[in-house]
Amino acid sequence: MIIMGRTSSKDSGHSFEDYFKRATSPMMTLLLLREKPMYVYKLSQELERRSNSTYKMNFLYPVLYRLQQQGYVTEYSQEITESHRTRNYYAITEEGKKYLDFMLEKYRELLKAVEVVIEGNGEVETVLPTESGYDD
Asked: 0.90 cut: is pTM over it?
């Protein structure tokens, strides 16, 4: 049973929106980092701003750590004050750019397929069973 976008207690308790964001967060992160290196708070704010506050990600560190382990993102520190305060920035790697291109291609393919199903424009043929239950 679905109540206000949540699944029943028998399911995981996550909404469709939660799953979608989790699935697309690496792609969204790499998209922003392709423009310029950013620190986590800036990434979060930029994503929220560009999506009109629809796309909020509270779990950016795990996404960045995973992307870093996969070699798609690199981290570096930069001094930001005279008192030697530093900030950690993340930048996309060349491998990350290739992976982002791959993800965007797959995302567009999937989105197109979903739209075809939603609109009912697919070439799916409905086969009605004969009286015996088997096609002749």
From this structure: no
